[in-house]
Amino acid sequence: MTTPADYYQRDRGRHPRALTPDYKTSVARSPRLPLISLQQTVSEITGPVFGHDDVGPLDHDLIRNYAKDGDPIGERIIVHGRVLDEDARPVPDTLVEIWQANAGGRYRHKKDTYLAPIDPNFGGCGRTMTGADGRYAFRTVKPGAYPWRNLVNNWRPAHIHVSVFGRSFSQRLITQLYFEGDPLIALCPIVQTLPDADAIDQLTAKLDMNATIPLDTIAYRFDIVLRGRRSTMFENRPEGN
């Protein structure tokens, strides 16, 4: 009789190569020498630990948490799902953070010079803790597509950046979610670095009419799998997290 392993082996064929020339900045960022494994210190292993007391009552609501004199402009959406381990068990009490562009495709950042206007009522950042069942939810506006200086006419599909914190500082995983039906997904050089179509599908939030609020807010579901062969593709996973 054999004892099952603690973790399933990761399918590295689902993850992109470090050097993908069609994604221009990967040329400068890809390592030229073998990676070195660094031993973690006690502070990296033991902290920080986040709790529900660290999250404000409006942190999950991007429609309200920055608004000054009205709601932000754009399509109102709910993004929700579960954080799961490799055996589809819920991961409770996990800090989930998001950041995104506004409905016009512009970030609230001094280096974003895209011609779309800044929305004075939209900050573009939020955070929440997963519940006992691993569930999380955000209310926000659907971000717009925007051009980027990769090739002559490249546009990023609408997307939201997602960060998941584990039990220590070194256990932070970052990814991007896209939206079902967006034709720009198939044209994005960043997305197309993924060699597995199923991995791309796992990064695509699915329309969820059951969670949609009639005459108010459209809902999308995005589950996050932390480990194993079917894990969500995380941008910083190849770095060793």
Automatic annotation (TrEMBL):
UniProt entry keywords in alphabetical sequence: Dioxygenase, Oxidoreductase
Limits of the Intradiol ring-cleavage dioxygenases domain: 45-228
EC main group: oxidoreductase
EC number in record: 1.13.11.3
Biological process per Gene Ontology, one example term: 3,4-dihydroxybenzoate catabolic process
One MF annotation (Gene Ontology) recorded for this entry: ferric iron binding
InterPro entries in alphabetical order: Intradiol_dOase_C (IPR000627), Intradiol_dOase_core (IPR015889), Intradiol_RC_Dioxygenase (IPR050770), PCDO_beta_N (IPR024756), Protocat_dOase_b (IPR012785)
Leader peptide range in chain numbering: none
Stretch list, region Disordered: 1-20
UniProt xrefs under Pfam families: Dioxygenase_C, PCDO_beta_N
Residues in Protocatechuate 3,4-dioxygenase beta subunit N-terminal domain copies: 8-41
NCBIfam families: protocat_beta (TIGR02422)
Family: Belongs to the intradiol ring-cleavage dioxygenase family.
Protein's name according to its UniProt entry: Protocatechuate 3,4-dioxygenase subunit beta
Organism lineage: Bacteria, Pseudomonadati, Pseudomonadota, Alphaproteobacteria, Rhodobacterales
